[in-house]
């Protein structure tokens, strides 16, 4: 609970910075492609570094891995504050800072997931993961509204300063709390083996267990679709709503995520299979994405945001619990890191193509004189943002389709029985 408190404060600070920075970059450049490059810089390095980070996470004290990660993020934030105050900030500075924070996140996220199994017994993993999701949900609820307000009064430099304070608080918590040491037998046995060979331990483990590999690949496919949505959501909403309304819409998502996190903890000890809950809420997320694109309405988009984020804690927690229960603690760092690398490997491609898809293909199709204006445009409307709306409908439908196909694969469907 103490560690989750520190992470909650850190998530709030990061949420403020991420929302404000995304809005600031889009307003400065007015391009979905430019925004997609920023999100790419925030994710691709983590995918690359994760498999190698797993070796160190299994060998080192996981608390210190998290401490060093927070220190790296804090130093990067200080550099951004200095550049903003001196008015020397350039777009490439922001890209570089995003890359640095993404690298330390590649250590911090799997280290925290692996440490959870030593902090709580298996019977409480669902509740522990629900607390983690609840922390993220509070950040999702509070950060957009607060950032939209603060951006006008204390500007980007002030928001980064608050983010820095949140890092310091989380760091103080980690320095205070002691983590139980995990067994490192497997790591010691492989100490003399090459770094590449030890890095591939996580891959070999997943490859030997068809259900776990299928889970990672399915998540990668879904993330590809959601990644395109992630880049496009701000331009779509800002085509018919204000920054304040955008923050309100995302905060509805935060409410849904809080309710979902509470339900994960409540249902954690039920007899329902986690993999079934995982599939149920994957269907719900695909439906929510499709609904968001139908009509430019704040109310409709808020409802879709609520439904999507209601399912997010179930999707993330169920996947995490399955891995935590199936993988031996001494190799969890490598397996979790490689799982993250596979699951999120599709995001960079999604971020790269999202901008051109929106700017060059779908938006022109749905202009008032566009190719689809007289057909599909009669149902979902034409003009600014309607092309992205059509993208959302197609992406949501595809997400439902790959969920239905994946459910037919028996090793994945029966993953908890083996």
From TrEMBL:
- Plastid as a keyword of this entry, yes or no, is no
Asked if Cell membrane is a keyword of the record, the answer is yes
Entry's transmembrane regions: 35-57, 64-85, 91-113, 134-154, 160-179, 212-234, 246-265, 277-298, 304-323, 335-354, 388-409
Q: Which Pfam families match?
A: MFS_1 (PF07690)
Q: Which UniProt keywords apply?
A: Cell membrane, Membrane, Transmembrane, Transmembrane helix
Check the record and name the CDD domains matching this protein: MFS_MefA_like
Write down the membrane topology: Multi-pass membrane protein
Which segments constitute the Major facilitator superfamily (MFS) profile domain?
A: 1-414
Q: Which GO terms describe its molecular function?
A: transmembrane transporter activity
Q: Where is the signal peptide?
A: none
Query: What InterPro entries is this protein classified in?
Result: MFS (IPR011701), MFS_dom (IPR020846), MFS_trans_sf (IPR036259)
Q: Where in the cell is it found?
A: Cell membrane
Protein name, entry field: Major facilitator superfamily MFS_1
Q: To which species is this protein native?
A: Hyella patelloides LEGE 07179
């Amino acid at each position: 609970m103490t560690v989750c408190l520190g992470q909650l404060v850190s998530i709030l600070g990061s949420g403020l910075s991420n929302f404000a920075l995304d809005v600031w970059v889009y307003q400065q450049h007015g391009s979905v492609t430019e925004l997609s490059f920023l999100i790419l810089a925030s994710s691709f390095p983590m995918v690359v570094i994760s498999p190698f980070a797993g070796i160190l996470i299994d060998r080192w004290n996981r608390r210190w891995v998290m401490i060093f990660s927070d220190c790296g993020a804090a130093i990067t934030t200080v550099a951004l504050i200095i550049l903003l105050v001196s008015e020397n900030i350039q777009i490439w500075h922001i890209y570089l800072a995003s890359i640095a924070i993404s690298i330390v996140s590649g250590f911090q996220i799997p280290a925290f997931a692996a440490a959870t199994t030593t902090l709580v017994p298996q019977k409480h993993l669902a509740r522990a993961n629900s607390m983690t999701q609840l922390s993220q949900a509070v950040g999702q609820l509070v950060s957009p509204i607060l950032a939209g307000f603060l951006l006008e009064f204390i500007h980007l430099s002030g928001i980064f300063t608050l983010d820095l304070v949140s890092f310091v608080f989380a760091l103080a918590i980690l320095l205070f709390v002691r983590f139980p040491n995990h067994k490192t037998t497997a790591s010691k046995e492989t100490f003399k083996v090459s770094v590449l060979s030890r890095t591939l331990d996580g891959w070999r483990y997943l490859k030997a267990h068809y259900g776990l590999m299928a889970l990672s690949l399915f998540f990668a496919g879904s993330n590809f679709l959601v990644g395109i949505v992630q880049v496009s959501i701000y331009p779509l909403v800002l085509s018919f709503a204000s920054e304040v309304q955008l923050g309100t819409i995302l905060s509805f998502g935060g409410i849904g995520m809080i309710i979902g996190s509470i339900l994960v903890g409540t249902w954690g000890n039920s007899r329902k299979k986690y993999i079934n809950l995982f599939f149920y809420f994957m269907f719900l997320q695909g439906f929510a994405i499709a609904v968001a694109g139908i009509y430019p309405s704040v109310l409709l988009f808020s409802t879709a945001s609520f439904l999507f984020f209601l399912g997010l804690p179930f999707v993330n927690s169920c996947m995490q619990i399955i891995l935590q229960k199936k993988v031996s603690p001494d190799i969890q760092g490598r397996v979790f890191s490689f799982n993250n690398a596979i699951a999120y490997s599709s995001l960079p491609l999604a971020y790269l193509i999202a901008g051109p898809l929106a700017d060059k293909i779908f938006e022109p199709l749905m202009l008032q004189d566009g190719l689809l204006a007289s057909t599909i445009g009669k149902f979902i409307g034409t003009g600014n943002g309607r092309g992205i709306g059509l993208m959302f409908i197609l992406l949501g439908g595809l997400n439902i389709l790959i969920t239905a196909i994946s459910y037919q694969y028996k090793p994945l469907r029966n993953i908890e029985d083996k």
